[in-house]
Design brief:
The chain is of the alpha/beta class. About 35% of the residues lie in helices and about 15% in strands. The protein has twelve helices and ten strands. Strands 1-2-3-4-5-6-7-8 form an eight-stranded mixed beta sheet, with helices on both faces. The longest helix is centred in the C-terminal third of the chain and has 15 residues. It is globular.
Length: about 300
């Protein structure tokens, strides 16, 4: 079943000036954000950028080209994706900059982001989802009982700083927790930055507290938000969301459909399903109804107990 690897094979020779940025491109950038670019892409505190093809060459020089372990949660096929895009005319000359990768054990935080210059004066910022670190999972659990969590605040600061003097249009995106961070950053960025946002991509990311989605700031950004979920979404059904879903087909089953490398594509579009599965809908209704019945203290106690 075709996925984003096939998309690069089919359309990797078509540059952005001939075929504009689309939903599949969004997913590619969010998957690449899982790659460790430490010491390769200029950091958040540095100036300059590096072509994606050069970044890939340096990555494989450092890590080798075989048996690169992405961990339990991150598909190893992302390495294949990096190889393919580094040779494809559509992607290879795009510039990467402002890479950040932070882990904080005392105040649970796992945060990583990278900015891509798309060549037409516009920008894409990709936020990494949850990796294999225990601290990353602790922060995810905290999302159910508190807002903001440290990575959400960091996402806002990142966007405000990177885009402060930029005039181009901005797209934000992320997979899993990264999708949540993309929305939060767009909602709470400075007004001057928000005016540059043309699209916010949430790829099967968890939702927010009810207070968040009922806020004026969230509803103002809502028209720019595109949420994409697989038919059997679980992670994307956590907490509350107001935006409509684009439901895509996957070659996996059940919760394994969270693996975005399994999402099916045809041409420059996702293969879509009529609706979420009954199990996915039931899970969303059950978890939100249950959380509504708990006080903030009860939620916190539950999350701490479950995490331990």
């Amino acid at each position: 079943m075709p996925n984003i690897l096939d998309y690069v094979d089919w359309r990797g020779d078509i540059t952005f000036d001939k075929s504009p940025f689309n939903d599949i491109d969004n997913l590619i950038f969010t998957q690449l954000s899982y790659i460790n670019f430490d010491g390769i892409v200029p950091s958040f505190n540095e100036n300059g950028s590096i072509k994606l093809s050069y970044a890939a060459d340096r990555f494989f020089h450092v890590h080798g080209e075989k048996n690169i372990d992405m961990g339990i949660l991150i598909p190893d096929s992302i390495i294949t994706l990096l190889k393919k895009v580094s040779c494809a005319p559509r992607f290879k000359d795009l510039a990467l900059t402002k890479y950040i990768n932070k882990i904080n054990y005392e105040n649970p935080q796992q945060f990583s982001a990278v900015t891509t210059l798309l060549g037409d004066g516009s920008f894409h910022i990709a936020f990494r989802g949850t990796d294999d670190t225990i601290v990353g999972w602790k922060e995810d659990f905290n999302m159910g009982v508190m807002m903001p969590v440290p990575s959400q605040l960091e996402a806002v600061e990142y966007v405000n700083t990177v885009m402060r003097w930029k005039r181009g249009k901005l797209r934000l995106g992320g997979h899993s927790k990264g999708g949540n961070l993309a929305i939060y950053a767009a909602v709470f960025a400075k007004p001057s930055i928000q005016r540059k946002v043309v699209k916010v991509y949430n790829n099967d990311g968890p939702g927010f507290t009810k207070e968040m989605i009922e806020s004026e700031a969230y509803r103002k950004m809502l028209p720019q938000i595109q949420t994409i979920v697989p038919q059997h979404s679980i992670v994307g059904m956590l907490l509350w969301q107001e935006e409509e879903y684009l439901v895509v087909c996957s070659s996996q089953t059940g919760i394994m459909q969270h693996d975005a490398m399994s999402w099916q594509v045809e041409g420059k579009c996702f293969v879509t399903c009529p609706s979420l599965s009954a199990n996915s809908k039931n899970f969303h209704e059950a978890i939100t109804s249950w959380l509504e019945g708990l006080s903030a203290k009860e939620r916190e106690k539950f999350v701490d107990t479950l995490f331990e």
